[in-house]
Structures are given as structure tokens and as C-alpha cells.
């Protein structure tokens, strides 16, 4: 799994957002109105300085833009597309478990790490039971916590 910094994550999201805007043939002012933000905000999103909110991304669905593609680069038609309301609810559940487990295990993970981990668990697990899902989330976070602990030991040496 590629580890993304939050800056790289925002930059890639901005590139996909710009590409979709251009594909629609809209200028920044028009697209900003669609998102419900100012043109300056859209400029910041496209440059990777800021991220749009989840609500703004899902507002694009009415125009046929898959918010999962914008956020994660996962093309439409993928089995686990977040354009599906059931999948969005499941993704939200997985994210809540990942976040809670990261706090419980005191795993030092960036926002980008948590989102990346959530997507990987969500897209690989299918419809497994909550118990198996929770066990897998805990296992991955435990590995991340151990890795961070090893890095701190190496730093102290």
C-alpha cells in the first residue's frame, strides 16, 4: 500500500477535480457554483491546498461525477464505488472503526493514512461480518503501531 502524505492526497484530489471540471467544459466560476463555494476556494482545491467537504463532493453526483473517483481515484463501475448509498454507509462504518481503533491502539496515523487504510479495508473486505472487519482493522493498525514504535526505537538509538 502506497503511503500518501496529506499534501499528496490533496494534490491528487485537486488534479482529478480539475480534470472532471474540464471534461464537463465548465470554467472555474461555473464549477465553483456547482460545489457551492467561491472561485478562490475551487482554485485552492485544484491546487491541492485545501480539500472540498464530503457534502460538496457528493453534490457533484447529480452531474454524473463519481465522488469516489474524485476522492480516491477509483473509476466509476468499480464494485465498491461510493456512488452507491449502501457502499457509502459501509465505508462510513469502516472509517469509524478505523478511527476508533487508531485511538484505542494509540497508532500514530495521519489523516491520509486513515483514509487510505479505510479504503483498502473497505474495498478488500466485501460483505464480511463486523467481527471479521473489526479484527482486520485492528490487525492493520497494530502493524502500523508496531512500525511507528520500531521507528521511534531506531530514532533513539
Automatic annotation (TrEMBL):
GO terms for molecular function: DNA binding. InterPro entries: Cro/C1-type_HTH, Lambda_DNA-bd_dom_sf. PROSITE patterns: HTH_CROC1 (PS50943). Residues 17-70 form the HTH cro/C1-type domain. SUPFAM superfamilies: lambda repressor-like DNA-binding domains. It holds the Pfam family HTH_3. This is HTH cro/C1-type domain-containing protein. It comes from Rhodoferax antarcticus ANT.BR.
